[in-house]
Structure formats: structure tokens, C-alpha cells
């Protein structure tokens, strides 16, 4: 068994150093494009579309031209895949995606019992890997590329083991900042990723402990119990919790988060968190106001001490419940894949708006806020996703979505 340090987000960052400065971006390459975010959500939504279109033009134009991967040249316009907004999926498209996720949740695990006794399904192989590596893949130099590879290999498993032939989805946070209950991802219909949890009255607020920093107060949301409808009503989260923030301020942990602990999927949809941290304006700000990857990845995850949990934390915690409020166990919520599709899309937009400087930009080390200290992440750093899928792979293969193992763009 792996020695486990089960810590809350707060305890891990308690020794975090660093003062952060925002640099003035050099926007020469963004001619005619927004260079700052509009405070109006509809206007910012339009800005996001413009930034996306510009990124897509560049990405389409540079297919096959990347030069760092060993796989150079295997991605062409012919085998290019696209990733799409969940709202652009037809009902049959949505059902096909959902069906393949449910299929992975029924296939037997590959992870050996002695490695993760709770991993019962192929879906759990991904969950076990994320629990196991949480402290090496968040607030690290590998954060963006690791999750790019992780969701790509999940997509590969859907295709090769569950006959999925559709596109990979992303969740546009800003579109749901007016009410998550109406979201096509969370409305509880048969074409959603299931909806809210059963309503539990009088829930106290959640407090995210941030070590020496003031705790961040999160409202409790509109659900709290098990999801009551939709495709994942009977799905069981098999592992965790590892560091689950509970209403009232406690954190729930288990002695071995990889042990078998089947329980319902709980949610407590919290629109207020999307409004605060992941609205259209904050998404456009993230893209336009950060000119190096350190600032970008820190703003995305929330700069410790700033009071922000970023679009990344905003999306995760807005699902609420269990495992949505547990950084380690978050892939146990099947909407994880839509959320991280959007995370990858935002990185892809940011990269393509200044490919020359940003495609291979890496900053950070191999440990959560460099605690304990570890070497800088570089293009040569090798990551792996354990028994989930794929094999060990160098960061250099993961920087472009049309190079290395990848061949996709966002539309
Ligand atoms: C880029 O390629 C995608 C996929 O082939 C296509 O759907 C899209 O229209 C293209 N967009 C631009 C701006 O070239
Ligand atoms: C967790 O990581 C360690 C070290 O890389 C590895 O030996 C172990 O098999 C991993 N466990 C899981 C569940 O992937
Ligand atoms: C949703 O699926 C359930 C279970 O398969 C079924 O009973 C129900 O009629 C479906 N509802 C709609 C609106 O399709
Ligand atoms: C928090 O945990 C403590 C100790 O286990 C317990 O006494 C208390 O009731 C818990 N508080 C809440 C709000 O669950
Ligand atoms: C949108 O998000 C930003 C955080 O990035 C926040 O400062 C702002 O208040 C939010 N907008 C609204 C209208 O809530
Ligand atoms: C690691 O990265 C930091 C920040 O970019 C840099 O100051 C430092 O010199 C690097 N360390 C090594 C050993 O390259
Ligand atoms: Cu993660």
C-alpha cells in the first residue's frame, strides 16, 4: 500500500510561499481581439467566442507543424477529431456519450486488488489514479498536461472498450451561471449527467481551509443528498472520501481512500459559485490577463490567499456534495469529464493565441505548491496515469492537441 498523506487543500498549501504578480500581457498577436474582459456576461460570452474562433484558425492552420513530439506528422486534417459544447450535442449524441460512460462503469477494473481494493470497474481505474496522484497533479507544473492526457485516455477507453464514436464534450460554465438547475449538463433529464441531490434543509456553509490564509466560505447549494434522477441515479462512487469538505466546516477522510466504500452520488448544485468564480467575465479574464503559464495556471486554480478558487475550483465545487467537494475523488462525479473538457479548452485557446511563446510554456514543480520541494517540471518530465490507460509519457508529447498522441481541436 502506498503511504497516504490525506490532507485538505488548506493544509497542503499552508506552507505555500510566494507572492504573485500579474504581468502586463503583450497583445501584439491579438490584433482586433479582446485584450480585457467585459464585465457584462453577454458581452464576455461573445468575447470568448471571438477568442475561440481565433484559436481555432491558428490550430487548424498549424496541424502537423509541431516539432517536439516523436509522433510528428501523424495528425492530419483527415483524422482530426473535434470536441464540442455539450449544448451542441443532439439528444441521441448525449445518450451515446452517457451510455459509453455507464459501460465503463460496468466493465471490470484493471487495477490489481492489492493496489486499490476499491477499484471495481474500468471507470474506477481512472478514479484510483486521480486519488493516488492528487498531490502531484494540482498546483504543479504538470497540472494542465496531466489532465489533458487523463481525459484523452478516458475518451480512448470510451471508444475502444465501449464503442463510443461521438465527440468529447465540454461544459461552458458561464452559460450556467444563471442557474445550474436548468443546465443541460445538470438538469436531471435522461440526456444530462444526472441532476441535483435531494434537498437537505438548513445546511451550513462549507469552509475551505487554506492554512495560514482565511478560510473560504462556500454556500451549501440547493441539494445535498443523493441524485434523484437521470442516468447516474443508481451509480455508486466506489472509493474515497479522501478530503471531502462538508457543510459545517468538517473534512471527511477515510483511512484508505482506495478502499471499497460504495455510496450514492451526492450533489448540491451551487450556482453562486459559478457566478463568483466561473462566469464568462472570469473565463475571458483568465485568457486575456495572464501572459505566462505560471500566472495562467495559478489564476485558473485560484491563487492561495487571494480568496479565489478560480474557474477550476468554481466548476468543481459548484457540483457540491460527494465527491464534488473532494479534490482527490472528484472524477467520481461523472460531470468531471465535461468540466475538465472546458479546462482543457481554455488552455487550448490560451496556447493558440500566442503559440510561439505558450505552446511549450511549463512552470511549476512535481508537488502541490512545491511542498515538499521537488524538481521543476520540464518537457522531459514523464507522467503516467497508472492502471487507467495509456502508458508513461513525456510532457513534450502533451503540449499540443494536434501532436503526440492527440489529434483534436475544439469547435
Ligand atoms: C477548423 O477545423 C474544424 C475541424 O475540421 C472545422 O470544423 C472548422 O470549421 C475549422 N475552422 C476554421 C476557422 O478553420
Ligand atoms: C500510486 O502510485 C504509486 C507510485 O507511483 C504506484 O506504485 C501505485 O501503484 C499507484 N496506485 C494506484 C492505485 O494507481
Ligand atoms: C428516462 O429514462 C427512464 C429510465 O430509462 C425512463 O423510465 C423514463 O421514461 C425516461 N424519461 C424520458 C423523459 O425519456
Ligand atoms: C464535526 O466533527 C466533530 C468531531 O467529529 C463533530 O463533533 C461535529 O458534530 C461535526 N460537525 C458537523 C457540523 O458535522
Ligand atoms: C465574475 O467573476 C469574477 C471573478 O473572476 C468576479 O470578480 C465577478 O464579481 C463575477 N461577476 C459577477 C457579476 O458576479
Ligand atoms: C526552477 O524554476 C524556477 C522558476 O522558473 C527558477 O527560478 C529556477 O531557477 C528553476 N530551477 C532549476 C534547478 O532549474
Ligand atoms: Cu484533478
Portion of residues in beta strands equals 5-15%
Percentage of helical residues? 25-40%
Number of helices: 12
Shape: globular
Largest sheet: 3 strands, parallel
**Average predicted local confidence, pLDDT:** 92
The tally of strands reads 13
Task: Please report the distance between the alpha carbons of the first and last residues.
Answer: 43 Å
Cofactors, ions, other ligands: 2-acetamido-2-deoxy-beta-D-glucopyranose, copper (II) ion
Strand order of the largest sheet: 2-1-13
Unreliably modeled segments: 1-29
Question: Rg from C-alpha positions?
Answer: 20 Å
The secondary-structure element order is HHEHHHEEEEEEEEEHHHHHHHEEE
Structural class of the secondary elements? alpha+beta
InterPro entries: Di-copper_centre_dom_sf, Tyrosinase/Hemocyanin, Tyrosinase_Cu-bd
Keywords: Metal-binding, Signal
Domain Tyrosinase copper-binding: 333-344
GO molecular function, one term: oxidoreductase activity
Characterise this structure:
- With 411 residues, this protein is an alpha+beta fold.
- It is 33% helix and 10% strand.
- The protein has helices spanning 9-12, 41-61, 91-104, 122-137, 143-162, 271-277, 280-288, 293-301, 310-319, 321-324, 336-352, 355-358; strands at residues 81-85, 168-170, 197-199, 206-210, 213-218, 224-227, 236-237, 244-245, 251-252, 263-264, 382-383, 393-394, 408-410.
- It has a three-stranded parallel β-sheet with strand order 2-1-13.
- Helix 3 packs across helix 5 and helix 6 packs antiparallel against helix 9.
- It starts with 8 loop residues before the first helix and ends with a strand.
- Residues 363, 376 line the site of one 2-acetamido-2-deoxy-beta-D-glucopyranose.
Amino acid at each position: 500500500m502506498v503511504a497516504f498523506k490525506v490532507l485538505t487543500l488548506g493544509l497542503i498549501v499552508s506552507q505555500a510561499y510566494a507572492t504573485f504578480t500579474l504581468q502586463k500581457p503583450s497583445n501584439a498577436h491579438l490584433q482586433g481581439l479582446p485584450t480585457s474582459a467585459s464585465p457584462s456576461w453577454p458581452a464576455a460570452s461573445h468575447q470568448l467566442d471571438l477568442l475561440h474562433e481565433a484559436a481555432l484558425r491558428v490550430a487548424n492552420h498549424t496541424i502537423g507543424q509541431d516539432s517536439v513530439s516523436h509522433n510528428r506528422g501523424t495528425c492530419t486534417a483527415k483524422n482530426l477529431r473535434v470536441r464540442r459544447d455539450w449544448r451542441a450535442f443532439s439528444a441521441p449524441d448525449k445518450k451515446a456519450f452517457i451510455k459509453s460512460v455507464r459501460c465503463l462503469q460496468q466493465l471490470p477494473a484493471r487495477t490489481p486488488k492489492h493496489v486499490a481494493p476499491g477499484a471495481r470497474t474500468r471507470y474506477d481505474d481512472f478514479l484510483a489514479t486521480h486519488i493516488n496522484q492528487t498531490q502531484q497533479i494540482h498546483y504543479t507544473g504538470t497540472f494542465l498536461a496531466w489532465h489533458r492526457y487523463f481525459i484523452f485516455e478516458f475518451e480512448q477507453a470510451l471508444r475502444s472498450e465501449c464503442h463510443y464514436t461521438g465527440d468529447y464534450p465540454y461544459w461552458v460554465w458561464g452559460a450556467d451561471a444563471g442557474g445550474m438547475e436548468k443546465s443541460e449538463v445538470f438538469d436531471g433529464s435522461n440526456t444530462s449527467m444526472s441532476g441535483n441531490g435531494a434537498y437537505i434543509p438548513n445546511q451550513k456553509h462549507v469552509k475551505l481551509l487554506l492554512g495560514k490564509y482565511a478560510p473560504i466560505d462556500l454556500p451549501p447549494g440547493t441539494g445535498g443528498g443523493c441524485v434523484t434522477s437521470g442516468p447516474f441515479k443508481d451509480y455508486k462512487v466506489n472509493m474515497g472520501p479522501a478530503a471531502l469538505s462538508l457543510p459545517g466546516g468538517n473534512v471527511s477522510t477515510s483511512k484508505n481512500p482506495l478502499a471499497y466504500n460504495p455510496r450514492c452520488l451526492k450533489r448540491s448544485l451551487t450556482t453562486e459559485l459559478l457566478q463568483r468564480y466561473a462566469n464568462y467575465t472570469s473565463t475571458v479574464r483568465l485568457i486575456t490577463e495572464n501572459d505566462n503559464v505560471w500566472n495562467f495556471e495559478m489564476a485558473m486554480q485560484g491563487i492561495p490567499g487571494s480568496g479565489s478558487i478560480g474557474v477550476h475550483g468554481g466548476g468543481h465545487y459548484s457540483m457540491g456534495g460527494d465527491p464534488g467537494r473532494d479534490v482527490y475523488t472528484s472524477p467520481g462525479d461523472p460531470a468531471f469529464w465535461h468540466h475538465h473538457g472546458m479546462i482543457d479548452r481554455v488552455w487550448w485557446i490560451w496556447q493558440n493565441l500566442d503559440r510561439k511563446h505558450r505552446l511549450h510554456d511549463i512552470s511549476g514543480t512535481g508537488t502541490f505548491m512545491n511542498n515538499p520541494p521537488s524538481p521543476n517540471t520540464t518537457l522531459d518530465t514523464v507522467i503516467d496515469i497508472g492502471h487507467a490507460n495509456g502508458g508513461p509519457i513525456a510532457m513534450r508529447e502533451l503540449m499540443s492537441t494536434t501532436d503526440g498522441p492527440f489529434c483534436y481541436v475544439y469547435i
